[in-house]
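Page 42, continued from yesterday. The earlier attempt failed because a stray header line got pasted into the input along with the sequence. Redoing it now with the clean sequence only.
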Amino acid sequence: MIDLEVLEGNLKNNKLDNCYIFAGLDEMLIKESVENIINTVIDETFKDLNVIKLDGVSTTFEDIMNACETLPFMSDKKVVIIYRANFLREKTDSLGAKLYSQCTEYIKNTPSHCILVLYYLLNDKRENLMKNKKIMSLDKSCTLIKADKLRGEKLYRKVNSIFERKGKRIGKVELKFFCDSVENNFDIIEREIEKIISYTQGRDITRGDISLMLPNKEEDDVFDLVDYISQKRPEKAVDLINELLNKGENMMLILSLIESQFLMLYKIKVGISEGKTKEDFVRELRRPAFVCEKLIGQSKKFSYKQLQQCMKLCIETEKRLKSTGFHKKTEMELMLIDTVRV
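This time it went through. Structure tokens are written below.
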């Protein structure tokens, strides 16, 4: 298994393999690396004729095999990309298991004229790729690439290049503050940069601008926590709440944010039933469009009754936490387990 930096070095030295599998959290970083592979082997003039993209959710083995077996046009190589290849996940349905089994055999004998690229996104930052036996079993058949988040100077340089590409300069201190404050996901980073540039037209970016425009990181953690509840994964929810508490986060604040999240999801469900759109929620909630889109998706995972019960559990837990006779950390864990059972 290699990382993105090693892949970049291999491509510069024209060291290519017949099959690559990417896995990571940041789809934009993965797409950039896939584009680098394409640019290394295919002339710009013939890209449209020699690059085939297949949706991993709906594709069949026959689609994949036909795409790979067809000879390239006016080129030595062609590239077949299977994006969102969720059949590579550790747990899939029967169709996904069958497609994985078929692809496993085919990957070992990928035609020499074809570079097959597959990628899927990890569920969350706590998912351990090394524990995915399906992925690791392919390590000898193809090149596995762990698309890790950029850190430190690499992150600063990459983010600064986006500001420059958009025609805006940002000071070194402000750049570091922005990188330390924003979620480490380049799809989100790009959107937040656009917001800040629009807000600061004609003047320099300040730390105050960044603080004002960026969403609260605690809210992101609470979104993940509620998502675990919707997925019926109490162990993940408990791990996250303990991680937050161990970092010194205020317990009552976290509980308040969880309750507010359930209330917001309830209001969104009511709004959807009344015919409201994403744009309506952007205005009402004063959140970016992509955040509202995520909230709408999350609201659909709960029924009205479930959300009412979850809010009730939050209120009851708050009462107990204000009493000195209860172990507060245990109360939070029990509340999360109860919300999953609702």
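Notes: The mean pLDDT is 89.
Reminder to self: strip header lines before submitting.
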